[in-house]
């Protein structure tokens, strides 16, 4: 369908489109309009709009029903899949401190190389996975990947030496690579700017919940199942996690609603599919153009998005890597096997509430930049403690325990979806490229700065993390200025398009953009 009026060049709303017969098709507005002009919000609606979606009371009943379905199906499935991925990702660290090292005779940096192989494969598969879902339904692709990594989770339970673990980690990474970039891509395709950061927060914290669950599960297995049927406790951990993963892959196949443009889920009606497309138009999210070729990639890599978003995320993400080495510190400090699993799990749980609060604040106060920067400023405290590495055991445990409180990854991905809203292909490529760059660095950097022979002090690792944290905050600030400039240009283009269409100015209503620091954009009245 071609747009005929109100062309969506920024954060505007497309109200009229031409269908295949050339006749204009007017999309039903998604905003509830009260003809009396008086507020109809009761106490419950006020509470929900404050605690959940700021525009909850403005939505029609049909739109609220659609969002509820998305929360129950899309968000829930992605959360469970992400939880299972994090459980498997954490299993190696938990197994390593629970007997795997001794059973497989792991020496030197062989454990680090297991992580490196995983990161290299994840890196290589990021962009292909996101490009695949532009042509293949995400429900098909993600379900196949989920079941694939479940199979190799079972295989890890039977590993007899470090060479086999290398091979199994390779295949686990091959299938797991798709999940994170595709999940954030899908979330950004369905949810609006006032909804996205909270949902991304819920999705993201399911990962730390998985990490925590893995630790508690390993502790319980080590206590109750170690030696059962002649199998070590860490082998039972892999078997149980594989059994848990397969049902998730099956559920994704049947219930994940793909994208608004190609959704064929039985529980979403035709009217709701059209409503979802109208929401995308209102949100400024452009649908697929089917143009996926070399010129598409060439267009993307000459934008500031490519050259600023990627290094900023790499710096930020490496500025939160301290948490990966908590278990190793506890082992070196002489903690029991149970405590080596339980304390890192508690650290993951400590970060959940702050991460949800940061996402809520980002949506509520309509700013991505501020709520990326503020938590990272607080994060300087534990990062400095570990970089200095004092003699106090209490200070070091405190620094590890609060590391998760300054994670803003979920807000970052919401911001990226909004910055790259003008092209679905660009969004897919940028999201995957950002992840790819991080895993590319993570494939070799730990072998230099986090050498196992330097554990647990890591004299090069912790200071590097501190420097990356500072660099990430500088990157956030530069992106904020560039995004403001982008929004001003989109506003100017929007005004020019409206004037060319001959729309009387009295039919134009100015509303603030999602970011409170952004310029105002023209939106056609419903």
Summarize the structure.
With 526 residues, this protein is mainly alpha-helical. The chain has helices at residues 43-51, 61-103, 110-132, 138-157, 162-176, 179-190, 193-224, 233-255, 270-283, 294-301, 304-318, 326-332, 337-364, 369-388, 393-401, 409-419, 424-444, 446-449, 461-500, and strands spanning 2-5, 16-18, 24-26, 508-512, 520-524.
Structural commentary:
The protein is mainly α and 526 residues long. It has one domain (57-486): MFS general substrate transporter like domains (Growth Hormone, Chain: A, Up-down Bundle). Helix content is 67%, strand content 4%. The chain contains 19 helices and five strands. The strands form two sheets. A three-stranded antiparallel sheet has the order 1-2-3, with no helix packed on it. It has a two-stranded antiparallel sheet with strand order 4-5. The longest helix is centred in the first third of the chain and has 43 residues, at 61-103. The protein is globular, with a radius of gyration of 24 Å. The two termini are 20 Å apart.
């Amino acid at each position: 369908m071609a747009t005929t009026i109100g062309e969506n060049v920024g954060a505007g709303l497309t109200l009229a489109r031409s269908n295949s017969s050339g006749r204009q098709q007017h999309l039903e507005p998604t905003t509830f309009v009260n003809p009396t002009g008086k507020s109809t919000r009761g106490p419950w609606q006020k509470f929900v709009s404050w605690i959940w979606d700021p525009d909850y009371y403005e939505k029609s009943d049909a739109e609220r029903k659609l969002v509820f379905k998305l929360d129950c199906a899309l968000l829930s499935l992605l959360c469970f899949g992400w939880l299972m991925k994090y459980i498997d990702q954490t299993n190696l660290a938990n197994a390593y401190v629970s007997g795997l090292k001794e059973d497989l005779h792991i020496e030197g940096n062989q454990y680090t190389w297991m992580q490196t192989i995983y990161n290299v494969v994840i890196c290589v598969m990021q962009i292909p996975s996101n490009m695949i879902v532009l042509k293949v339904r995400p429900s098909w692709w993600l379900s196949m990947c989920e079941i694939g990594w479940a199979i190799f989770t079972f295989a890890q339970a039977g590993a007899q030496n470090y060479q086999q673990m290398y091979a199994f980690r390779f295949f686990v990474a091959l299938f797991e690579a798709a999940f994170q970039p595709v999940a954030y891509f899908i979330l950004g395709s369905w949810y609006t700017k006032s909804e996205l950061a909270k949902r991304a927060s819920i999705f993201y914290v399911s990962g730390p919940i998985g990490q925590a669950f893995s630790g508690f599960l390993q502790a319980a297995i080590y206590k109750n199942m170690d030696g059962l049927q002649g199998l070590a406790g860490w082998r039972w951990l892999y078997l149980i996690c594989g059994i848990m993963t397969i049902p998730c892959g099956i559920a994704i196949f049947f219930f994940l609603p793909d994208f608004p443009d190609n959704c064929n889920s039985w529980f979403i009606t035709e009217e709701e599919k059209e409503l979802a497309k109208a929401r995308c138009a209102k949100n400024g999210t452009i649908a697929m153009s089917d143009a996926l070729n070399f010129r598409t990639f060439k267009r993307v890599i000459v934008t500031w998005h490519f050259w600023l978003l990627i290094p900023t995320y790499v710096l930020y993400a490496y500025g939160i890597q301290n948490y990966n080495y908590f278990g190793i510190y506890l082992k070196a400090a002489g903690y029991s096997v149970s405590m080596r699993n339980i304390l890192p799990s508690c650290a993951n749980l400590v970060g959940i509430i702050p991460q949800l609060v940061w996402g809520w604040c980002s949506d509520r106060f309509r700013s991505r930049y501020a709520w990326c920067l503020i938590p990272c400023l607080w994060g300087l405290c534990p990062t400095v403690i570990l970089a200095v590495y004092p003699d106090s055991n209490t200070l070091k445990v405190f620094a590890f325990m609060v590391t998760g409180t300054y994670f803003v990854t979920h807000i970052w991905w919401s911001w990226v979806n909004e910055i790259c809203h003008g092209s679905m292909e660009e969004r897919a490529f940028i999201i995957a490229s950002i992840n790819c760059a991080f895993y590319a660095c993570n494939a070799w950097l730990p072998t230099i700065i986090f050498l196992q022979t330097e554990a647990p002090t890591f004299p090069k690792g912790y200071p590097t993390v501190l420097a990356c944290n500072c660099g990430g905050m500088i990157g956030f600030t530069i992106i904020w200025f560039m995004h403001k400039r982008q929004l001003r240009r989109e506003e100017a283009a929007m005004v020019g398009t409206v004037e060319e269409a001959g729309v009387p100015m009295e039919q134009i209503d100015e509303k603030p953009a999602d970011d409170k620091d952004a310029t105002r954009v023209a939106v056609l009245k419903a």
